[in-house]
Q: What sequence folds into this?
């Protein structure tokens, strides 16, 4: 597999405080990579290290297979677009004037600018001053600036911030189209549902360490959902399975965490052998948010 981004033991310390520790990123080319973690997990610091805005304490960053060094930095950054923290742009200028500045700064042609503006559907708002823009419009302008150079890698920190539901849907479609067109997109967001619908590969960090990396299917397989048992005597069944940390749900089912299929078959057989009639066994449905909360011990984005 070809990777747009790889890191080896990427670490950032501030004095005695470790913000990112031995992080090994693997971001396949042409994917939307959802970068998740609680507040303070090291997401923004990691993104800034990838962009060479912050120097790592130790470890290595590779972009398109090339190490990010002082000698390669300029060349590699030319293939990366980014939107980190606050959207860029001069408030006293119009959207069009801001984009012309980007054009002159990067030596781009008018067609590249027009393509970037149309990609974020901002063409009808370019005559307005940026100070008149909503936060969502500023986000889209920032992404247009990032797209103008037609990057191979796009790094976005909270790109749906300030967008209404229609805008979020548009952004979702844009990121998918970019990935289909060969652009690798790394995106962090606190909207787990949007990441779930957009990302093809997920990376979850907690306290500066990678705790999961892979596809959504891999994540769900790695996180065993509760077994829910419907039976004739839930109270008795819960008491019988107390050693397995069984609890009763509001629906009167017995919930047992952490069981694989073989263990599930064993406890069902044991209940039936003790005269408890079992008439339903299923896995609890779980969302990306459920798994995230479990992996990060309830940490919030």
A:
């Amino acid at each position: 597999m070809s990777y747009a981004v790889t890191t080896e033991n990427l670490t950032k310390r501030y004095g005695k405080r470790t913000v990112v520790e031995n992080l090994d990123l693997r971001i396949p080319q042409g994917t939307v990579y959802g970068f998740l973690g609680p507040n303070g997990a090291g997401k923004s610091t990691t993104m800034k290290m990838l962009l060479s805005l912050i120097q790592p304490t130790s470890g290595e960053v590779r972009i398109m297979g090339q190490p990010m060094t002082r000698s390669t930095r300029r060349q590699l950054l030319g293939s990366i677009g980014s939107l980190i923290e606050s959207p860029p742009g001069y408030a006293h200028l119009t959207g069009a004037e801001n984009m012309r500045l980007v054009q002159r700064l990067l030596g781009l042609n008018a067609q590249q600018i027009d393509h970037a503006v149309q990609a974020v559907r901002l063409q009808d708002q370019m005559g307005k001053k940026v100070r008149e823009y909503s936060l969502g419009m500023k986000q889209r302008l920032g992404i247009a600036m990032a797209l103008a150079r037609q990057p191979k890698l796009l790094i976005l920190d909270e790109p749906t911030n300030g967008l209404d539901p229609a805008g979020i849907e548009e952004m979702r479609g844009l990121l998918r189209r970019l990935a289909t067109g060969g652009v690798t997109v790394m995106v962090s967001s606190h909207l787990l549902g949007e990441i779930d619908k957009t990302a093809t590969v997920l990376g979850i960090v907690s306290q500066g360490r990678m705790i999961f990396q892979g596809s959504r299917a891999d994540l769900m397989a790695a996180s065993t959902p509760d077994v829910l048992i419907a039976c004739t005597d839930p109270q008795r069944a819960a008491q019988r399975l107390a050693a397995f940390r069984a609890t009763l749900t509001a629906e009167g089912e017995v919930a047992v965490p952490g069981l694989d299929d073989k263990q599930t078959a064993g406890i069902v057989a044991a209940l039936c052998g003790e005269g408890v009639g079992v008439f339903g066994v299923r896995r609890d449905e779980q969302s990306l948010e459920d798994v995230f909360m479990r992996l990060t011990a309830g940490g919030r984005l």
